[in-house]
Amino acid sequence: MHARLRFAAVGGGLIALFGVALGIGALAGDPTGSTLDPGGHTERDTGLSDSRSGYTLTDLSAPADPNRSGALRFRITGPDGAPVTQFTTQHDKKLHLIVARSDTTGYRHVHPTMDDTGIWSIDWNWTAPGTYRVFADFVPEQGHGNLVLSRTVAVAGPAESQPLPPESRMAAVDGYQVHMAGDLSTAGGELRFTITRDGAPVTDLEPYLGAYAHLVVLRANDLAYLHVHPQGEIGRTPAGPEVGFHAQTPSAGTFRLYLDFSHGGVVHTAEFTARVESSTAPSTSDGGHHSGGGHP
């Protein structure tokens, strides 16, 4: 696995939220746009479009109202217009589905299943009205590398936007405490998360999607999306309490961070808010060190 991932690298891409009605659940795609380094791709990709390199996210349907159970379904079609049914496994899955509401709430990272006709589906229930971005991250077996395609869903009802939580380097979730050291940076820098439970270091993190943790970052003003995997390697890197990442943002701004880790057979998500200032050199704040390893 790669030691460093950037925007739109394996496992992630940029997204923005726009509510446009189109069929059940008010589903819509976005036009164009790309400004970020895709971490090894030959062209730039922000994930703002439902179509790229001849591949299209289509036939997307979902429950139209909150608290109504149903299925979220979609297909990926290829350059020939036919449904794609062959995908390369990346981080233990053929396809990763990320969902977030326009105010950065409602974050989910899930894994639908695909039938023989190329329809991906997963049981779904929206918990609140609002405009959500649904995007698929995958690698088609026939090449073109990692692709991120996305569309929006407008869930019916009055949506109350939640204020962004204040900046913090400490998060509590499910009885765990997670401390963040280092800074996001436009020039690239290190982030280190230390996980404890009841004051004791957690040293037996469980593998989750081929890594000890995953980090998702959303830019608050447009939900630009970064998915980073930790430095190190399962079986060779200590399984906690610290997990290190290298991340580079496309701009200054305020970002929302989601750290997914597995312990006790459950995936937990610690959330942070961080401000990124323009910089010209990698960040090494908090007196920290750079983590080594060759793992995304």
Overview of the structural elements:
With 296 residues, the chain is mainly beta. It has no helices and 19 strands. It has strands at 27-29, 51-52, 55-61, 70-77, 95-101, 108-110, 113-114, 119-124, 130-138, 147-155, 170-173, 176-182, 189-197, 200-201, 214-219, 225-228, 242-247, 253-263, 266-276. The chain has a five-stranded antiparallel sheet, with no helix packed on it. Strands 2-3-4-8-7 form a five-stranded antiparallel sheet, with no helix packed on it. Strands 11, 12, 13, 14 and 17 form a five-stranded antiparallel sheet that branches. It is globular, with a radius of gyration of 18 Å. It starts with 26 loop residues before the first strand and ends in a 20-residue tail after the last strand. Mean pLDDT is 80; it is low at 1-44 and 280-296.
Low-pLDDT runs: 1-44, 280-296
- Element order, helices and strands? EEEEEEEEEEEEEEEEEEE
Residue share in β-strands: 35-45%
Instruction: Categorize the overall geometry.
Output: globular
Number of helices: 0
Strand order of the largest sheet: 1-10-9-5-6
> Average pLDDT across residues?
80
Helical amount: under 10%
